[in-house]
Design brief:
The protein is of the alpha/beta class and 539 residues long. It contains 20 helices and eight strands. The strands form two sheets. Strands 1, 4, 5, 6, 7 and 8 form a six-stranded mixed sheet that branches. A two-stranded antiparallel ribbon has the order 2-3. Helix 4 packs across helix 5 and helix 7 packs parallel to helix 20. The two termini are 53 Å apart. 28% of the residues are buried. About 3% of the residues have low confidence.
Length: 539
């Protein structure tokens, strides 16, 4: 082995990797098939210093790195000096990790547009089959520890401690500087002074604590307004003599219980007065004297209901004081995991087509998938229209999503009567666990296929969907959900290493998830091109 042997690299960089290498395709796609003007808009031109890096090169670098499971800016910088494909992308001009990180940070709002550009390119290549699409969610950890969660009282104590620490640090710095300046300038000369960095920096820990407290206060105010509005409407309908069905709103439980108790007391008191009046007049009356008001069964029941309402109100008040916010990423929340445990992060949603293309993405803080149904269905409909318009040409077809999407598949986390009856394309929503649905379809199958579309008004939507999933066609179609919806999450976590966001805040999490979806779809495009399909002509 002779490490002193000298070699010469080809002077033409195009000979460093074979022409069939996918890095050339990624470079061509970004340079000629994607509109990256949103990334160019934030580029600083002119002024002192060296010329800035080409935004198209940095976009290509990030796309290639993420497709290789490399998301750390320092790892990307190192790869730009060690990996030939990365060196080809940079054309020998290696950006440092600060440039890469700053570019990603400054252009996070352009990621949604990049995702749509890639989706349009995929549609031009014939990808994006809409016969069967599926929605699912996955919990992704935020760039924060769950140990950094604090209650409102804890946040206020932390804010006070942080203020005291900064004040003490500032006083110590001033004292040390005064002593040094006295030695340097003399006791009568004030000398130059500087504000401590902690007091001048707006991104300090105290700012994040204040943001978390503001979020808690805003949430409490919003919940209070919503609760009071529903309670006032409910009580007003009771005052008007209307019969109100359903559960009593949370804010009206105590007031409604007090009214029921007062009605029961008044009714029993009226019975007692009539008995006493009949006895005094010497007329006939009831054979037995009525019970005292406090001993009557209805009054006792109403009083127990009032005690229960007061207890629940106290428990809710105590629980409200235990709400937690994270002082590292105040937007993130504790998310329950399917196998048990918790993760500090976000709930990430993805609508996927039958050929594995991500059609729409969403990120939120709520752990319940059911709440994301309306937004994600609207996004999937818009994506279907975009794909249809791209394939047909530039004219607007005006086709409704109901005509473009065959059927949408959802697991039991999205099951609710509102989601089952909401307008939109045909859907299959599980009403229980998959193994229970399979067992029911095998043990008690429905031979006659039900009429597709919304169930009749007199039928319960959940029962109608349960019956449909017992049919041969219904359960066979639903079996496609797991391979379609969950494969993209397995690829993201296990193949690409996307288990934690690199930035903080809900807006940046949405942008990062959209960028990942764009990279995922570019991977589908590369696989499609490997089969021999050429790139379409530049529009």
């Amino acid at each position: 082995m002779n490490r002193d042997q000298q070699f010469l690299l080809p002077p033409d960089m195009r000979e460093w990797v074979p022409p069939t290498h996918p890095v050339w395709t990624v470079i061509e796609i970004v340079d000629t098939h994607l509109d990256t003007s949103a990334f160019h808009a934030s580029r600083r031109t002119g002024g002192a210093g060296r010329a800035g890096y080409d935004p198209d090169m940095l976009v290509t670098l990030l796309v290639w790195a993420w497709s290789r499971g490399m998301r750390s800016s320092r790892q990307i910088e190192r790869a730009c000096t060690e990996d030939v494909a990365f060196r080809v992308i940079c054309a020998g001009d290696t950006p440092d990790h600060v440039t890469i990180s700053r570019f990603r940070k400054d252009n996070h709002t352009a990621c949604e547009d990049l995702f749509m550009q890639v989706l349009i390119l995929a549609a031009r290549l014939g990808l994006g089959r809409l016969e069967t699409i599926a929605l699912d969610g996955v919990k992704i950890a935020s760039n924060a520890s769950k140990d950094a969660n604090r209650t409102e009282a804890g946040l206020r104590r932390a804010a006070e401690a942080e203020a005291a620490r900064i004040a003490a640090a500032a006083a110590a710095a001033h004292a040390a500087r005064d002593e040094a300046e006295d030695d340097l300038y003399g006791e009568d000369d004030p000398g130059p002074g500087q504000v401590p960095a902690e007091l001048a920096d707006p991104g300090t820990r105290s700012a994040r604590i204040a943001e978390a407290l503001a979020q808690l206060d805003a949430q409490k105010q919003a919940e209070r307004c919503e609760r009071d509005g529903k309670a006032q409407d409910y009580l007003a309908r009771l005052d008007a003599g209307q019969t109100v069905l359903g559960r009593v709103p949370v804010g009206a439980e105590v007031a409604a219980a007090e009214r029921r108790l007062a009605e029961a007391v008044a009714a029993q008191q009226s019975v007692i007065e009539r008995f006493q009046g009949g006895t005094a007049a010497g007329g006939g009356g009831t054979r037995f004297a009525p019970k005292p008001v406090d001993e009557h069964h209805l009054v006792r029941r109403r009083r127990a209901e009032l005690d229960t309402a007061l207890r629940k109100q106290g428990e809710r008040t105590a629980a409200a004081g235990q709400r937690r916010r994270n002082i590292t990423d105040p937007d993130s929340r504790l998310q329950p995991l399917r196998g048990g445990g918790w993760v500090q992060g976000y709930n990430c949603q993805a609508f996927t087509s039958e050929d594995g293309l991500i059609l729409a993405t969403g990120v939120g803080t709520g752990p319940v998938d059911c709440d994301y149904f309306p937004e994600m269905v609207d996004k999937a409909g818009a994506a279907a229209q975009l794909i249809d318009t791209t394939r047909r040409g530039k004219e607007q077809t005006g086709t409704n999503p109901e005509e473009l999407i065959g059927v949408m598949l959802f697991d039991a986390g999205y099951c609710s009567r509102a989601n089952l009856t909401a307008p939109g394309p045909d859907r299959l929503i599980a009403t229980g666990k998959s193994r229970h649905l399979e067992a029911a379809a095998a043990a008690d199958p429905v031979t006659a296929d039900p009429v597709t579309g919304p169930p009749p008004p007199q039928a319960d939507p959940i029962q109608a969907m349960t019956r449909r999933l017992r049919t041969k066609a219904g359960i066979a179609t639903y079996r496609k959900r797991s391979p379609i919806a969950e494969t993209v999450f397995g690829h993201a976590k296990h193949n690409l290493g996307f288990r934690r966001f690199t930035s903080r805040g809900l807006d940046r999490a949405r942008s990062e998830w959209a960028f990942h979806a764009a990279v995922h779809n570019l991977g589908k495009i590369l696989t499609h091109l490997t089969a021999g399909t050429p790139l379409p002509a530049t529009p």
